[in-house]
Specification:
Radius of gyration: 16 Å
Number of helices: 6
Strand content: under 5%
Largest sheet: none
Mean pLDDT: 92
Helix content: over 70%
Number of strands: 0
Order of helices and strands: HHHHHH
Low-confidence stretches: none
Number of domains: 1
Structural class: mainly alpha
Shape: globular
Distance between the termini: 44 Å
């Protein structure tokens, strides 16, 4: 049942992104940034945490989950370190995911050759 919940919630988030791509003139980059900011906003109003508890990876893997993670990291760091936590909390909370993305991106670029679109 956990897999179905994750699939449903993650699928809905992806469907919203696809609708935004198809029906608006927003660039994909702006849509991605909107999703990150939306994750931060939903965590600020205490809506995203229950969604994460319900859907697990279906809510944490999409970009809204990245925004949620940044917001959660900043809140924790502010409680522990005070004002400086604003600047360090998001980086500390997301460093593992960012490092993994860089390493795997590099490995893929070494293994495969890019081709230009024509």
């Amino acid at each position: 049942m956990d897999y179905l919940k994750a699939f449903a919630v993650g699928g809905v988030i992806c469907v919203i992104g696809q609708i935004l791509i198809d029906k608006t003139k927003l660039t994909p980059a702006r849509i991605l940034v909107t999703f990150v900011v939306l994750g931060v906003f939903l965590q600020l109003i205490r809506v995203y945490e229950p969604l994460v508890k319900f859907a697990g990876a279906g809510a944490t893997v999409p970009l809204t989950g990245f925004g949620y993670n940044l917001c959660k990291g900043v809140a924790k760091a502010v409680n522990e370190r005070g004002f400086l936590g604003i600047f360090t909390g998001g980086l500390t909370a997301s460093s593992g995911g960012v490092a993994a993305a860089l390493v795997f991106g590099f490995l893929v670029s070494v293994i495969f050759r890019s081709k230009s679109k024509k």
